[in-house]
Design a protein that fits this description.
Helix content: 40-55%
Shape: globular
Structural class: alpha/beta
Order of helices and strands: EHEHEHEHEHEHHEHH
Strand content: 5-15%
Number of domains: 1
Radius of gyration: 18 Å
Largest sheet: 7 strands, parallel
Keywords: Oxidoreductase
Distance between the termini: 32 Å
InterPro entries: NAD(P)-bd_dom_sf, SDR_fam
Organism: Frankia umida
CATH superfamily: NAD(P)-binding Rossmann-like Domain
Bound molecules: NADP nicotinamide-adenine-dinucleotide phosphate
Family: Belongs to the short-chain dehydrogenases/reductases (SDR) family.
Pfam families: adh_short (PF00106)
Amino acid sequence: MAAHAELQMSTALITGASSGIGAAFAEAYAARGARLVLAAPGEPRLREVAERLRREHGVDVHTVAVDLAEESGPDTLAKAVAEIGLDIDILVNNAGFGSRGPYHEIAAERDHRQVMLNVVAVERVAHLFLPGMVARGGGTIINTSSTSGFQAVPYMAVYGGSKAFVLHFSIALWAEYRRHGVRVLALCPGPTDTGFFEALGSRMSAGGRVRTTDEVVAAAFRALDRGQAYVIDGRLNYLTSNASRLLPRGFVAQVTERVLRRGSMAMVRSARAPRPRRLLGRRTAS
Ligand SMILES: NC(=O)c1ccc[n+]([C@@H]2O[C@H](COP(=O)([O-])OP(=O)(O)OC[C@H]3O[C@@H](n4cnc5c(N)ncnc54)[C@H](OP(=O)(O)O)[C@@H]3O)[C@@H](O)[C@H]2O)c1
């Protein structure tokens, strides 16, 4: 497959495309001329994104309103794509959310939905679209993991665990499918300026500059062109994620627990401000 620049003949399927990182991928692929299939549960927002991309880039954009945290969600998505009649060349398996707090205080149903969306749907959607890529001899899969996937994350235990799954699952597929011409990438953003923290129900404290969605997408595209298995967006995120791998896991978890216990008390500036900025307090996971 050609470098990730000219994609006029390609179709990209993006989950979680109605906002944040997914919407930035939609914008970037539309700008490169790709046809799009955008998926998310909230239909009005999805339609707004689709209409804007059609207007600004003149590309063909389809939308599928689907709740991927439901057991049947991925199959509903695949059926809708089949009805549209498109082969998917690029899959951005991006939809996800987090929960934060002492594990026993988080509603069990919320954590269950988190696992269904961040883990089960990511795996199932890959299963539904990868065979077609293998049969056609090429394709691209970007799975959105997180810097949280590199270590245990107290007070975000399910989220960190889910992103560790995405990281290892993606790297394994990268190794398996290179020889089939299918590129698989685990995308690991750190704190990024999206609706994520609002959905988390918490304004997280973090050190370093919050990254923009455009920076995250650019990091993914560079990594694909270089054939990388995973990419951590941002130099500081790269250093902190890799530093934690050199230390005993229990020690890292204990230190993180202390930081996040205090951090959860500190209300900081919203992660929704219009420009990237430095959040107050200590660095934490995303
Ligand atoms: N922002 C960060 O700091 C950060 C850092 C590392 C990793 N990530 C990861 O990046 C990915 C995108 O998050 P974001 O930061 O862009 O957050 P976001 O702005 O909240 O976007 C989340 C997207 O996922 C969709 N979504 C939520 N629940 C869904 C469901 N049940 N089924 C299908 N789609 C669903 C949302 O659609 P609706 O609007 O319709 O609900 C929205 O389009 C997530 O996997 C997240 O874990 C984010």
